[in-house]
Specification:
194 residues, mainly alpha, elongated, disordered C terminus
């Protein structure tokens, strides 16, 4: 018998103590949990706590998951509640520097100091335009960027917005971002830095 791949099989196997199934679940949904935590603008440490606590909650409830196919939504909702709990405990929202959100380090030696500085300026300009978006747009776009094909159901539960409004809201947010970028003089160069 091969490794379980469907969510129903994975949840059943993980519930029975299969460490490989648990690892597959963690690998499949970790980026979603990080995206939800970062969408709440938590710093690295608090976001890590949210992710860890969400996995612990799943571990505690793994045998009680009635609809394994809805696991992404369950995880997203749990991560959202954990994020809100962190914010309540802190009594204030922790802001994250935009460069922390870029998610990549620049190898200065590999691409040259001038190119790195230009790239950093462009990134800063792009993140400045992103910061002009409403909080709702910023959260939505951050969650949608964390994985290749996010489940709109999971996004809906993570951000507490109707599934049917995700696509239109995303398009409005991207249009607003595009206009801000165009107004800032930012020049996108295809084939440049990636």
């Amino acid at each position: 018998m091969g490794e379980p791949s469907g969510l129903t099989e994975l949840v059943a196997a993980a519930s029975g103590g299969d460490e490989n199934a648990w690892s597959v679940i963690v690998a499949r949904f970790s980026s979603l949990l990080w995206g939800v935590a970062r969408a709440h603008r938590l710093d690295q440490s608090d976001a890590a706590d949210v992710v860890q606590n969400t996995w612990l909650r799943l571990l505690d409830n793994l045998g009680r998951i009635e609809r394994p196919e809805a696991l992404a939504g369950w995880l997203a909702t749990t991560a959202r509640y954990e994020s809100l709990s962190v914010l309540r405990r802190r009594g204030r929202e922790h802001l994250v520097r935009d460069e922390d959100l870029a998610g990549r380090a620049v190898d200065v030696e590999a691409i040259g100091l001038d190119t790195a500085l230009l790239g950093d300026e462009q990134d800063a300009q792009l993140w400045s335009c992103f910061a002009q978006l409403s909080q709702r747009c910023q959260r939505l776009l951050r969650v949608l960027m964390v994985c290749d094909r996010p489940s709109y159901s999971a996004v809906s539960q993570a951000l507490d917005i109707p599934v049917g409004s995700i696509g239109p809201t995303r398009m409005r947010c991207l249009r607003t971002l595009r206009e801000a970028v165009a107004g800032s003089g930012y020049v996108f160069e295809p084939g440049g830095r990636s």
